[in-house]
Structures are given as structure tokens and as C-alpha cells.
């Protein structure tokens, strides 16, 4: 299928590895110009090289900036003032026992996972609305709906993204700009695999046992019963970035392996 992305420029935040890198690679495969982002020049240069190995001849630019700070966000938008596709992907996550989470920690989660995406969206939306074309994607998570008690600050931010995306979509009426969020389930990214390795070591179990226990204890309704690969998740984001996906707007699109038991 031709996704009509060859004349598009896409910014994917947090794209030196994991879902962000897979989305950037998928977009580059479709011929889009891709802007990689991360905090570290060396890791960015490495990601740039890996992407070109996977997609020879791809048009790739990089911007080193911490998108969770005002300064980083400003540096990014100064370097890349206009894009056709924005994928808000950066987030922090960790297990946290509710009574131990301080005010500062709640605020840090909000600032990092929500406010950072709002800043970038506020910058890029006017250009998209003026051109009446554009794609905004928010990488949310099944936790937005499952409200996991053991990682509530993270879950709260992922729920907030659904509301923010839907509300911003309301501003696109009469244009072909779309604003959608994607509810990812477990994805076997470098970050997630490292987390499983650490848990396995702490618990004296194998990584396979920890992964199986995760699905039994935390995602018993999962139909897939394994983490998706970054590429499996990215393929949906790439499709939603396409002009062909114009009729999907204001949606929270499920890609969580069937964990959330709803038909609407
Ligand atoms: N993996 C999962 O199971 C899963 C499930 C549901 C939802 N999600 C969501 O998917 C998204 C990506 O997760 P992931 O697992 O792919 O993450 P990951 O493997 O940990 O990768 C995170 C990426 O973000 C970059 N990054 C981190 N902080 C940044 C910052 N402040 N500014 C700029 N770049 C930053 C990192 O680059 P540098 O370190 O080079 O800066 C890296 O490229 C997140 O929103 C997450 O909540 C993931």
C-alpha cells in the first residue's frame, strides 16, 4: 500500500530507540523525511546511522533536545519550525507505591509526560491548521484505561493524553488535520526489556518467568499474551500518519493486544 508520505516531514520525539525509533524507521521506509530526537548527540548519531543501514538513502535529520524542558522544546522548534507529522512519544514510567508518591513526583510526571506534548502541539498545530493538513499522534498506553494502582502517576498522564488529544482534535473541524492517540500495550523495547531483566535479577527468576507472570498478574485479559514488537506498534502509528487515515480523528486507537475488553 502506498501511504502517500513521500512529501511529508515527520518529527518523532524520543526516537533513538524503542517505539520512537521504530516509528521513525517505518515513516522513512514510506519515503517521509524524518527528524530523530533524543537527549544525547552520540546516541542520536548512532540512531541516525542505524536508520540509514535499515533504509538506505532515507532523508533523516537529528535534533538533540530534552523535550521535557521549556528550553529543550524551544531548541527543537527553533531547529525544526514546521512539520507535517508530530509523534509525541517521550514519557517516563516506573512502578510507584501510591502512599510514597510525593507532590513533586506527581508534578514531575505531569510535566514530563503531558505538558511537554502540549508545548510541542501548541507550536506545530497552527501551521497544520493553516495548511489544513497534518497529523498529531500521542503515544498513550493501556494504563490510561486500566489505571494500574502500582503506577498511578504514569497511568494518570496516559489518561490525560487521551483527553488532550480528543480536545485538540475538536479544533481541526473543517480541515484534514487529525489528532489521535494510540493505546499501546506492552512492547518489547530496549527500555521495557531492561526493566524485565532488572526485575528478574531482583526476584531470582528468569526473564521469561517475569514476562509470563506480568501477563498473568497485570494483564490477565490480554489476548496476545506477549509484548508486541516495536515494529508491530509502529506500523499502526505510521498508518495513522498517512493522508489515507484522514477519517480517523479524535480517536484513542487500541494497540494493546486486546487487553481492554470493550467493543467501542
Ligand atoms: N514499551 C512499552 O511496553 C510501552 C507500553 C505502553 C506505552 N509505551 C509508551 O511508548 C513510548 C515510548 O516508550 P519506549 O518503551 O519505546 O521507550 P524507551 O525504549 O525507553 O525509549 C525512550 C526514547 O525516548 C528518548 N528520550 C527519553 N527521554 C527524553 C527526553 N526527555 N527528551 C528527548 N528524548 C527522550 C530516549 O532517547 P535518549 O535516551 O537517547 O535521550 C529514547 O529514544 C512512551 O510514551 C511509553 O509510555 C511503552
UniProtKB/TrEMBL annotation:
Recorded GO MF terms: oxidoreductase activity
Protein name: SDR family NAD(P)-dependent oxidoreductase
PANTHER family: 3-PHENYLPROPIONATE-DIHYDRODIOL_CINNAMIC ACID-DIHYDRODIOL DEHYDROGENASE, DEHYDROGENASE/REDUCTASE (SDR FAMILY) MEMBER 4
Gene3D superfamilies for this protein: NAD(P)-binding Rossmann-like Domain
Family: Belongs to the short-chain dehydrogenases/reductases (SDR) family.
EC number assigned by the record: 1.1.1.-
Keywords: Aromatic hydrocarbons catabolism, NAD, Oxidoreductase
SUPFAM superfamilies xrefs: NAD(P)-binding Rossmann-fold domains
InterPro entries documented for this protein: NAD(P)-bd_dom_sf, Sc_DH/Rdtase_CS, SDR_fam
Stored Pfam families: adh_short
